[in-house]
User: Fold this.
Amino acid sequence: MEIETRKEGDIIIVKPLGKNIDSSNCTDFKGKVVDLINQGNKFFVLNLAAIDFIDSRGLGTVISILKNLASVKGILVLCELKPQIINLLNLTNMHKVFHIDKNESDAIQTLQHLKL
Amino acid sequence: MAEKSMKLTFESKLDCLPLLGNAIKGICSCVIQDELLLSQLELCLVEVVSNVINHAYKKEAGHTIEVIVSLTQNHATFTVIDTGIKNPQIFKKELNTDPQDINGLPESGMGLPIIYQIMDEVVFREEQGKNFAILKKKFNKIS
Assistant:
């Protein structure tokens, strides 16, 4: 899966460019993000604006990324979630787990506060 | 509207899942205008078929999966048929998660609880060497 990344200070914004995060591509996606974590990045904004569909394995991958970051005292904020993605998080109770913002600038601001 | 049905037949490959999802949404959009419901039905069918590919067919390509979609103005029935190994696990209906315990969060096994939350009726059965997953959902016609 192709991803787009950019940095703002020590915050890295990751934007998957495919339409789905599912069984067919979640392993590849996780690998790319874990590589970024292994490069020393700890503060992530995951921009899901392009994502129309996530299945349970895709969600499991995002949870795995969250756990990876937690192990290095990192932080993950999600943003630009479409209604069906928010619905998935609600169905699985994961809306209580993730920091979720409407847009990138809000997500970056949230991260700055959480870092303090 | 009398019940109308369509059968989809495809190979047990994970890269079929996005195509299946779009097909389900497209077919159901004939009678369902609620975009969120369409997405939920897409999710349920992808979850079932993903389980078939990963568990019943052990991720092997070359096997056949059938999905029958039956629609009326206020009722949808999806039947997923495979000839793979029946999942011996007890099907978990509920997802127990503690949002405060990040290390304890599930990374797998969420598919069936999701399906049970969305669908009105879920039946798994085996018949003459074939596995059937039958999912039913009622909805209101928007006029």
Remarks:
- DSSP finds four helices and seven strands in chain A.
